[in-house]
Automatic annotation (TrEMBL):
GO molecular function list: L-amino acid transmembrane transporter activity
Membrane spanning stretches: 29-52, 64-84, 104-128
Protein's name in the database: Sodium-coupled neutral amino acid transporter 8a
Bilayer topology term: Multi-pass membrane protein
Lineage of the species this protein comes from: Eukaryota, Metazoa, Chordata, Craniata, Vertebrata
Any single GO CC term annotated in Swiss-Prot or TrEMBL for this entry: membrane
Keyword field: Membrane, Transmembrane, Transmembrane helix
Length: 134
């Protein structure tokens, strides 16, 4: 399976006119690092309120169904990002967006990312405040 994936990526890289990725050019994110980043993103501040959310959703069965539907969209997005990365020949998310969508959309993406970080910080503060009040 891995060999087929490598073959597909090498065919895509050879089809494009761009030079292949230079692995030694900069730091790379390992598999474990990517797994921890994805888990942190998926759980986030909501981990503190899982019991409340499950109760509001109608029980564990409803909550797991919603999570499975969300998983489909998450995996689809990661597949699209991986494909775009292999076509563009870029290593980072920001570079892929700038290469595939253009510099204006790349700037908009960076602004949205900073705004997202700010809102995550606010969410953590609200949830911690709610926990302290209880």
């Amino acid at each position: 399976m891995e060999e087929l994936a490598r073959e597909s990526i090498s065919l895509l890289a050879s089809a494009s006119a761009k030079p292949p990725l230079d692995v030694a050019a900069g730091p790379r994110l390992g598999s474990m690092g990517a797994i921890f980043i994805m888990l942190k993103s998926a759980l986030g501040a909501g981990l503190l309120n899982f019991p409340w959310a499950f109760e509001r959703a109608g029980g564990i069965r409803s909550a797991v169904t919603v999570e499975l539907v969300s998983l489909v969209f998450l995996v689809s997005g990661l597949i699209i990002l991986g494909y775009s990365s292999s076509i563009s020949g870029q290593c980072t998310y920001q570079a892929v967006v700038k290469e595939v969508c253009g510099p204006a959309i790349g700037q908009l993406c960076e602004i949205c990312f900073v705004f997202n970080l700010f809102m995550i910080s606010v969410a953590f503060l609200v949830i911690v405040d709610d926990q302290l009040e209880k």
